[in-house]
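Lecture 7, part B: from sequences to assemblies.

Below are the input chains for today's worked example.
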Amino acid sequence: MRELVYYVAVSIDGYIADPDGGFEALLIDGDHASVVFGEFADALPVQAHAALGIEPPGTRFDTVVMGWNTLTPALALGIPSPYPHLRQVVASRHRRDVAPAITLTDDPVATVRRLKQEDGPDIWLCGGGELAGALRPDIDRLILKRYPVALGSGIPLFGAARYEPHRFTLAGTRPFESGVVIEEYIRPGRA
Ligand SMILES: NC(=O)c1ccc[n+]([C@@H]2O[C@H](COP(=O)([O-])OP(=O)(O)OC[C@H]3O[C@@H](n4cnc5c(N)ncnc54)[C@H](OP(=O)(O)O)[C@@H]3O)[C@@H](O)[C@H]2O)c1
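Predicted structure of the full complex, as structure tokens:
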């Protein structure tokens, strides 16, 4: 069964964006880019592929799941389908006018559980925090790009999820000269 992988950039203190939804404070250049642009090139949006002149490999992920607030920055930039190389599933409790390439779901837990039964590369949980909070019990692997900055406030990794400890097993850490550490955790019982 393929995995639901929450691959996300996060601050030292566990925020994925600032209080207004921006993430400029998390953007730093450096040697971790080799992983972001290489191993995880499937998780780059269409404009990044165009700017970098690279083709998404299609080997790490074939599906992205995101919350409505994570799609809206792309819409504001005039990009209705930010990940056209992936199947794009967007959680919303409202009827929304979206590009044909986007599938809306008002029950992301059921949708993800169904998708996980299919064969293929893994499913990327892009975020944001609210959706990740709802999907927390279904996350098989956490890959955190931990940036060396403390925001103090912002959008938490799991939104306002209720207190309910879920243990993960540390599978590895990769520190970079940039100060970024890529931390990988798996749900107990996964290989
Ligand atoms: N650092 C990173 O790598 C990273 C990655 C992704 C996102 N982000 C940032 O995170 C921020 C967005 O996070 P967020 O927590 O505010 O929002 P979010 O999870 O992206 O979206 C929240 C919206 O998604 C829908 N939704 C969420 N859970 C749902 C559920 N269980 N059932 C049905 N619909 C559901 C609802 O949409 P409706 O209101 O339409 O019902 C809800 O208002 C953005 O600023 C984004 O830039 C950062």
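Note for the exam: Residues 8-9, 16-17, 21, 23, 26, 66-70, 73, 91-94, 106, 108, 126-131, 134, 155, 159 surround NAP (CB under 6 Å). Keep this in mind when comparing with the next example.
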